[in-house]
Here is the input.
Amino acid sequence: MKRKNNIFYDKTLSKRHKSAKRFKFYAIFSLVLSISFLVFFLCDMFVKGLPALKQTYIKVDITYTSKCMKSYRACIDKKLRKVISRSEIRSIPLKIENNPKLLNTTVSKWLLANHQVDQYIKGHYYKLKSKDKRIVDTLNKENRVELNFNRVFLTKGDSKIPEFAGIKSAIIGTIFTLLVTMLVAFPIGVMTAIYLEEFAPNNKFTQLIEVNINNLASIPSILFGLLGLAIFINLFGFPRSSALVGGLTLSLMTLPIIIVTSRAALRSVPDSIRQAGYGIGLTKVQVVLDHVLPLAFPGILTGSIIGLANAIGETAPLIIVGMIAFIPDSPTNIFEAATVMPAQIFTWAGMPERSYIEKTALGIMTLLTILISLNSIAIYLRKKFETKW
Amino acid sequence: MKFKKKSTLIFTEKNAIIKLQESSIKYILIAASVISILTTFGILFSILFEAIEFFKLKSFYYFFTGTQWSPGIENSKFGALPIFWGTLMITFIALIVAIPIGVFSAIYISEYATSRIRGFIKPLLEILAGIPTVVYGFFAAITVAPFIVKICSYIGLEASFNSALSCGIVMGIMIIPIISSLSDDVISSVPSSQRKGALALGLTSVEATKFVVLPAALPGIIAACLLGLSKAIGETMIVVMAAGLRPNMSINILEDMTTVTVRIVDALVGDQAFNSPATLSAFALGLALFVITLILNIVSLYFIRKFKEKYKVNTL
Here is the structure.
């Protein structure tokens, strides 16, 4: 009744409110959807990667005899040879060589199990002969099978034997590559930002640089790989698959990120600082280097960490410059062939053995942990040094 | 006069040194900024020269119109149309997934969310944006693709394990944060006078968003979508890990298809000699990729500039 008397009452209003509600629902729904993607994705990786934290070990009697030096398989009970990791059996002669006292003794030891046994014990899909399966079952009854923390993963390099593959060489490769990246990209990026923000006159040349940086930021990463291949490897003759080439390629990709964030940091320093500097007779370079740059430095650092985090996850250009080679031993310098963590993940993901899947997921968890902690450091630094002028 | 000169002598000498220092520092800075130009031209020319080598060996016309891609040793044929087609299909699926979700998420963040929710959601989306693409690729190959195959076999359809659909969906998830963060910035920077004017005319607040704020922000939203598209076209790891290698011109999204980036990786990881047409074809494809993404980026920048000029916004 009241509504009818109200001259401002619009009959379509309830309809309009309904459509408004629908609109809001769409908005909330799509946001929830994108967040649930993230949650589902992280849970999926977690569930897949968690089993790889543990590995199966089997207690075995090893008899060291002189025969072992020639045929190392002989020192382990014939039945058990199939269920023990090949890598453990292979390392026996080396052990004797290092410690000759072991000869003609029998030692009971926990050895790494074969990856199929590992999968069987964890209750995943496995491929075991029924004979070997029975052996594992009896061993299990005798309490000679144990799931232990996966020490191999962080202390060993890549291997063709799934249970023996670790991510250490990839981590060291990543460190070398990023070292090169930051040593090149950080100074050049900051210098470019200083020039563009503080010195550059507004002319065609400056505009050209600015347009270039914008473009560079949005060129597909794989094309940087083509550049690295054509220029760093073919033209300059740097060693293929080395951390040097990978790092240089990544540095060109990180450059725009560092430039853009550094410029924003320089711009946020108020003009009064510069004016005060000129007022007491400082030159432009003195003002910029001694006063503006230190004030902008936290912001520049934050931007560089974000650029670094981006570079860690980059894979495509590194594949092109050959950093997916099989690297069992960690590189010792930037000229040696190396591999990086995402490339290692890529290689493992393409392996046929199932136990590599959980290794891949664990590798991804390691990578994401590093990335998220780097980003958190960046956010923390930003909060800590945030100055309201 | 003489006296004055003498006393300023020290000053001028010092000034000269300072001036020399200043100008040398300035030149070092200029040299550093030239590197970004060198990189762009380096990319362009390194790709261009190898692509020219390729087109000396193989027909330019057939590359863009041919439908057969068989980079064998003998009788190799390089018709890239099916490869472009596969790229188009996969990015199309990705955009269908990403544009509605991304834009509506941006609308929620900028129009409805309180500052607390905003402060909570934005970092989450940043995490989504920071996940390396190789991880998305693994997710597509190991989780999404088998899931789609299962669902399809349940309905009675046959899907490939390398289906374009699974790649497209995961790629869509990847570009959601790109679209939503830029759209959010654009929508938030529409001047509030626009919205207030609409409210004063009697529109409800949602109607003001729908009919006034969003149309005003449209150029920016289009720019965001174009940027997402350019990211999707250039995306490599997801398709390398989850898409097929077979060039396939089909409209069935459950079949396997290949993309430009997959063929580039495939051509360069192999063992062929560097100057064989099979390897050089990667550079021809790379050139096409470069040109397409460059055009998309330029158009996207144009839309953003248009938006900025119209509403006098400087913060984008």
